[in-house]
């Protein structure tokens, strides 16, 4: 087999990223750093196949700037710091911009914003009343459009900041870009607008779902999907991509503005665009009187970025007065009157060092990637789930690969893709185990399931995970009985199955380090309270495959005692509405195992009430209940009730709660900071949209 050529940029990229600063670089290393930057620029802007997270590219760029500041004699016009990045492929029709479209300097914290403010004030001669306009920094594809005599004339990509690729035909297909706008009424003959082409988050998920069904490669993020869509040869294909355009700047205008404020205020120009029918970030734009107010607004948006319907990776801070902007001027790379406040990175790259295999409560084998510890969205990530064997194969992930990580919702780390072209031949295909890593039992895989499972229900790992789940909040909800405590008790031999939870020796627990009398009494109190839990919680806590809270509540409503299920046949289960043959088979098999019933009998002997409670009984819903036959969904932050209380209220009034906006949805109840679900419901036009107060009034 021919070994692949060693990739020339992989090791160099990692070397420069790991450098604390550029102070010790030699001239040769500086040249290498520029080569690395040029490579990543090309992959990012031209190929739409970034090999780095944005924050990592920024680190490399900053180190090049540091080296040039220390050694100005090294600097040449060929350095990437001396020009803006280009998205313009060779040989394409091009359009020259009416004004340069430069990059932005970056800031990452409040201290950087304060330094920016000091610099602005120094260059302006300490003028008072410097106002800043702050707006979202959209993570999409930049566009430049020109209107002349109220008509859309041309549209282009950002290109190298001076000349962009002609995409006029494709831009005309975007419904958020007016083909004409009455600039003439404002005294303007010709204008150049800056904007960003984006795909909403929910639409991006739909696109990837369709691509997955068709066996096509998935897009890494909405930005790649949008920028690729702008360059399609057939405008009809662009139209299908669902791209939208936000506009954030009038960069050039000719004529005699009627409104004097439009002449000298960036904020006033955005307001004019809104009045003319352009899509602008209304909720995300603010004129601030002080840099401290700017910092607070940026922090507010960082906290709510996930609820926003579009990807944003920061905020842009601009001096509002245009005469001040002109006085401040620009470097060859960026304007001195604007700065990007970057949010904590949601993406980063790392190396896959090892794969470990975890065994779940029903025997599911989950591969977990151990990666080189990496900072991501303010947290150090060292482990990432690889989900299952199919996930590994579909993304062609190998040991030793460089991988792109994303922290979805700033919570769950996720591997977006591996960088196959960075491989040097040392990477190894991941071999999924054939036997359980704990008990060595041969693994099995059911038809139409992605997971491999260990069929040995006495596998120690499964037993431990079942106990951890049994006491968890979603099951028996035993307060103070967390995973670490279960593991400690299991190691000491005090827990061997779920019935042991109700037979603990509290005198032994008192002797454990860190346990005082109050801790012991609180644990005992929580366990005693759990003995009177609903049948729904008890069934949920048994770790029966495919039997969650919803199925458990359906079963609990049909029986007066848990032990009645010993006598049920699979046909008895299937006869219940919403219980299918797979679930029926799983429950029937569980109660057919004598050891399982023995554990439940022991729990009953130890005081666990196995009878139906009032909360298990079917809701008594009137025939004329206001939500009978209606599906309902809640979105945003509810103010007067919790989400659980709202769902219960809906169900008591005959409604069925669902989890997504679709053609089956009848009512959407909207709380504060509602995002993409509200937007989608409005677009559908068939959904009744209610405020929280209107919902409460409807159900009385």
UniProtKB/TrEMBL annotation:
Q: In which residues is NAD(+) bound?
A: 54-58, 103-104, 135, 158, 196, 318, 342
Query: What would be the name of the gene that encodes this protein?
Result: ligA
Residues reported in the UniProt entry to bind Zn(2+) = 436, 439, 454, 459
Sorted keywords for this record are: DNA damage, DNA repair, DNA replication, Ligase, Magnesium, Manganese, Metal-binding, NAD, Zinc
Entry function? DNA ligase that catalyzes the formation of phosphodiester linkages between 5'-phosphoryl and 3'-hydroxyl groups in double-stranded DNA using NAD as a coenzyme and as the energy source for the reaction. It is essential for DNA replication and repair of damaged DNA.
Q: What is this protein called?
A: DNA ligase
UniProt lists the family membership as follows:
Belongs to the NAD-dependent DNA ligase family. LigA subfamily.
- Active site positions, chain numbering: 137
BP GO terms, sorted: DNA repair; DNA replication
Entry GO MF terms: DNA binding; DNA ligase (NAD+) activity; metal ion binding
- Organism of this sequence: Membranihabitans marinus
Q: Which GO terms describe its cellular component?
A: cytosol
The BRCT domain extends over: 622-700
What is catalyzed by this enzyme?
Answer: NAD(+) + (deoxyribonucleotide)n-3'-hydroxyl + 5'-phospho-(deoxyribonucleotide)m = (deoxyribonucleotide)n+m + AMP + beta-nicotinamide D-nucleotide
Supply the EC number(s): 6.5.1.2
């Amino acid at each position: 087999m021919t070994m692949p050529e060693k990739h020339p940029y992989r090791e160099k990229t990692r070397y420069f990223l790991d450098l604390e600063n550029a102070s010790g670089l030699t001239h040769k290393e500086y040249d290498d750093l520029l080569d690395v930057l040029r490579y990543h620029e090309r992959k990012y802007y031209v190929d739409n196949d970034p090999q780095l997270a944005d924050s990592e590219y920024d680190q490399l760029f900053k180190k090049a700037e540091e080296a040039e500041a220390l050694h100005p004699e090294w600097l040449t016009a060929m350095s990437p710091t001396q020009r803006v990045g280009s998205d313009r492929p060779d040989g394409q029709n091009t359009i020259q911009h009416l004004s340069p479209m430069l990059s932005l300097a970056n800031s990452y914290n409040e201290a950087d914003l304060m330094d920016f403010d000091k610099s602005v004030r120094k260059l302006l001669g300490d003028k008072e009343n410097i106002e800043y306009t702050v707006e979202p920094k959209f993570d999409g594809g930049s566009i430049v459009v020109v209107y002349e005599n109220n008509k859309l004339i041309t549209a282009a990509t950002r290109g190298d900041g001076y000349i962009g690729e002609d995409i006029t035909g494709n831009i005309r297909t975007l419904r958020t870009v007016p083909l004409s706008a009455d600039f003439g009424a404002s005294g303007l003959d010709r204008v150049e607008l800056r904007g960003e082409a984006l795909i909403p988050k929910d639409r991006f998920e739909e696109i990837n779902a369709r691509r997955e069904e068709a066996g096509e490669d998935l897009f890494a993020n909405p930005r790649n999907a949008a920028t690729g869509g702008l360059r399609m040869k057939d405008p009809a294909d662009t139209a299908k991509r669902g791209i939208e355009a936000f506009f954030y700047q009038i960069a050039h205008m000719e004529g005699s503005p009627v409104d004097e404020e439009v002449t000298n205020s960036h904020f006033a120009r955005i307001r004019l665009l809104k009045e003319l029918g352009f899509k602008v970030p209304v909720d995300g734009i603010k004129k601030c009187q002080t840099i401290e107010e700017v910092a607070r607004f940026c922090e507010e948006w960082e906290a709510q970025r996930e609820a926003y319907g579009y990807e944003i990776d920061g905020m842009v801070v601009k001096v509002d007065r245009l005469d001040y902007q002109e006085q401040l001027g620009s470097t060859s790379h960026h304007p001195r009157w604007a700065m990007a406040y970057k949010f904590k990175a949601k993406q980063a790259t790392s190396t896959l060092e090892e794969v470990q295999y975890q065994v779940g409560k029903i025997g599911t084998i989950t591969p977990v990637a151990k990666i080189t510890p990496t900072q991501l969205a303010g947290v150090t990530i060292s482990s990432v789930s690889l989900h299952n064997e199919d996930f590994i194969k579909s993304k062609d992930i190998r040991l030793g690969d460089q991988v792109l990580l994303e922290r979805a919702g700033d919570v769950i780390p996720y591997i977006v893709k591996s960088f196959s072209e960075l491989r040097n031949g040392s990477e190894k295909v991941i071999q999924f185990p054939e036997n359980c890593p704990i008990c060595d039992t041969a693994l099995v895989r059911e038809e139409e399931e992605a997971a491999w499972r260990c069929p040995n229900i006495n596998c120690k790992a499964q037993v431990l995970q079942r106990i951890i789940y049994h006491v968890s909040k979603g099951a028996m909800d035993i307060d103070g009985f967390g995973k670490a405590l279960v593991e400690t008790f299991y190691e000491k031999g005090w827990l061997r199955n779920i019935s042991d939870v109700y037979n603990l020796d509290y005198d032994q627990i008192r002797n454990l380090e860190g346990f005082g009398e109050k801790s012991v009494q609180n644990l005992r109190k929580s366990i005693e309270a759990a003995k009177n839990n609903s049948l729904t919680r008890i069934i949920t806590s048994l770790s029966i495959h495919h039997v969650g809270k919803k199925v458990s509540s359906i079963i609990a409503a049909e029986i007066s005692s848990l032990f009645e299920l010993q006598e049920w046949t699979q046909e008895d289960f299937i006869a219940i509405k919403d219980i299918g043959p797979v679930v029926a088979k799983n429950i029937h098999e569980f109660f057919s195992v004598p050891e399982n019933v023995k554990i439940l009998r022991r729990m009953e002997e130890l005081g666990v009430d196995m009878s139906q409670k009032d909360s298990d009984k079917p809701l008594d819903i009137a025939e004329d209940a206001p939500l009978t036959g209606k599906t309902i969904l809640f979105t945003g932050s509810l103010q007067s009730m919790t989400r659980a209380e709202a769902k219960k209220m809906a169900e008591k009034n005959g409604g069925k709660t669902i989890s997504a906006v679709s053609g089956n949805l009848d009512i959407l109840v909207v709380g504060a900071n509602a995002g993409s679900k509200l937007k989608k419901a409005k677009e559908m036009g068939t959904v009744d949209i209610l405020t929280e107060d209107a919902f409460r009034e409807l159900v009385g």
